[in-house]
User: What shape does this take?
Amino acid sequence: MTAFITDYSRTLAADEEVLIHCAGATAVRCLEGEDSFDIRPDDKNPVAMELGIGFTYKKPFNSLRIKNGATAQTIKLAIGDGTIHDNRMVGQLNITGGIKSAANPTVSYGAVSVGSTATLIQAANANRSSCLVQNLGAAPIYIGSDSSVTVSNGIEIPVGGSMEVKHIRTVYGICASGTQDTRYMEESTS
Assistant: This one.
């Protein structure tokens, strides 16, 4: 069979239902739409559709029933007899804090004696993927993201315990008394 792609576009009222004849089709993809709606190839089980969603079926279908949701909208479908790729990203992508690349990963580790005043365990690192902090001392340590950390407001790491830090800010530690053997292992990308 020769591959075909048909663009079907229609403005549908809320809850409107339409039937499309498309003999031999095996694929459908939503190219335009503001809200979800259902499709039913050959009046079989309904499948929820929305912008960017597509399906390829093993068996051809001859009709496609569309049932709109509760909002009037214009929909556009690509219907064909093979996988439909239109090489477009659809929808919205929000990125906060940038994208970290896995290129050139580095690992650093070391030991710090955390005392009864806030002690820097690791400096801020914009390329940090994670930093594991482990307490090998004889008493709990408390960590925070700045030098105002105290035993009353810090996050406790019990004796023998550890905690993974995912933020990129500084990591400080403090203990109630004495000094505690604290280890860190930081992974970052450049």
Notes: The two ends are 51 Å apart (CA to CA). The chain is about 0% helix and 55% strand.
